[in-house]
Amino acid sequence: MPKTCSICGKDKLKGNKIAHSRSHVSGRTIRTFKPNLQKVRLEDENGTVTTQYVCTKCLKKVN
Q: Could you report the average pLDDT of every consecutive run of 10 residues in the chain (63 residues)?
């Protein structure tokens, strides 16, 4: 499954996961924020139907 939106190109982001049970200095690990991609059948200008992965923000714009 691809990890990017086919319309806007939204990709995964990296950030810090902070553990609040430990001290604030040593409790950080790197995590990834993945976009909410949905498998959608879209029609092109020519009338051909293709299956693409689209984020939910772009899905609201298309429909």
A: 89 86 70 94 92 93 80
- pTM of the complete model: 0.72
Domains and their CATH numbers in the chain: 13-62 (2.30.170)
The C-alpha torsion from 21 through 22 and 25 to 28, rounded to 10°, is -60
Question: What's the confidence (pLDDT) of residue 20?
Answer: 73
* 42, burial (CB in 10 Å: exposed 0-12, middle 13-18, buried 19+): middle
